Amino acid sequence: MMPRIFKADLHIHTCLSPCAELNMGPKTIVQQALQQGLDVIGISDHNSSENVSAVMRAAQDRNLKVLPGMEVTTKEEVHILAVFDSADRALQLQEIVYEHLPGENDPEAFGLQVVVNEDHDVLGFNKRLLAGATELSVEQVVDSICSLDGLAIAAHVDRETFGILGQLGFIPEELHLDGLELSRHTSREEAKRRFPEYARYAFLRSSDAHSATDIGKVWTSLLLVEPSMQEIRKALRGEDGRRVVPEDVNPNVFRLQERVSMGLRPAQGDENYRCCRPRERLALSLPKGLGPGQSRKSWTPAFAGLAGVS
Ligand SMILES: [Zn+2]
Ligand SMILES: [Zn+2]
Q1: How far is residue 150's CA from residue 93's CA, in Å, rounded to a whole number?
Q2: Which residues have a Cβ under 8 Å from the Cβ of 70 and sit 6 or more positions away?
Q3: Which CATH superfamily is domain 4-306 in?
Q4: Cα 75–chain centre separation
Q5: What value does the mean pLDDT take over residues 206-234?
Q6: What ligand is nearest to the CA atom of residue 208?
Q7: Is residue 119 a contact partner of residue 144, using CB atoms and an 8 Å limit?
Q8: Is the Cβ–Cβ distance between 87 and 56 less than 8 Å?
């Protein structure tokens, strides 16, 4: 099979993350990702993977690949993104993380940490301090991810807070990172100019969405045979014709050309994926039993002081 372009947003939080909106339930995420024309998403809550299976189930029979993962906070307060092929692997990392994650969540101060099923029913509230740092070093976290055969990506390296460059000042030579993630504020071209010493790494961009409207705001176009973690690994290494596609290439043009060449009509989502849909047209739903119309910010006024956490 010939590689084709897949649109990936590998950094999306659910309502399990204390700083995410409560309406970030599995179906809302899947629906919004499809509306944005994404092919692959990664679920990466802070220090936990308890909602990944629910999102994977919500995407069953939909044209969307969900890769389970986590955003681990190291003891140096560096955010490392883990991406796996199976929920089992993500849960194995979670075991390691939980063994080294001290503290208990204060929902008043940090926000609720809601565990849900695929229908957004509340199964419970995670009591751990997911907003906190683990006792694991950057090396330990990256090695743990590698030993579980996952992708280890340094999150939002262009950000001062919680980015590896902002926290450590450099990337250790021997660290086995698979790529560097950029926030929506920095293009890959800018990053290559700004960080020439790290040109050996693949740069990818993700939304780091904490609310539904942010999903797919930025993404990475990848030339893959199929939307799997192993194919993404090859693309990040530039192996076997797989690669990260430059940002000035519109993936929808590729998709359209490919479909036309196959004698198919343009697919839904091929057109005008950049448009912003009005908020009221999105299927916003709160977890059942949590009260109507309240975002996490209104639940927890103290959040304002923590706005830098993402
Ligand atoms: Zn994040
Ligand atoms: Zn982060």
Answers
A1: 10
A2: 44, 45, 46, 47, 48, 49, 81, 82, 90, 93, 94, 97
A3: Metal-dependent hydrolases (3.20.20.140)
A4: 21
A5: 97
A6: 1
A7: no
A8: yes
Which ligand sits closest to the CA of 44? Answer: 1
Q: Which ligand is nearest to the CA of 163?
A: 2
Residue labelled with tokens 């994977």 = 56
Ligand 2 centroid distance, CA of 79 (Å) = 5
Could you report the per-residue pLDDT of 112-166, keeping only the tens digit for each? 999 999 999 999 999 999 999 999 999 999 999 999 999 999 999 999 999 999 9
DSSP state of 267: P
End-to-end CA distance of the chain: 38
Residue 163 alpha carbon to ligand 1 centre in Å? 11
- Let me know how many helices (H) and strands (E) the chain has, helices first: 10, 11
What 3-state class would DSSP assign to 66? strand
* Ligand 1 centroid – CA 79 distance (Å): 8
- Could you state, in order of their start, the residue ranges of all structural domains in the chain? 4-306
Counting ligands in written order, which one lies closest to the CA of residue 159? 2
Angle, helices 87-99 vs 138-147, to 10°: value is 150
Q: Report which residue type is found at 286.
A: L
How far, in Å, from the CA of 225 to the mean position of ligand 2? 29
Distance between CA atoms of 135 and 238, rounded to whole angstroms? Answer: 34
Distance CA(286)–CA(264), nearest Å, equals 38
Query: Whole-model pTM?
Result: 0.82
Angle, vertex CA 150, rays to CA 145 and CA 156, nearest 5: 75
Decide: helix, strand or coil at residue 181: strand
Ramachandran category for residue 20: left, alpha or beta (phi over 0 → left; psi -120 to 50 → alpha): beta
Cβ-proximal residues to 252 (8 Å cutoff; 6+ apart), any chain: 37, 270, 271, 273
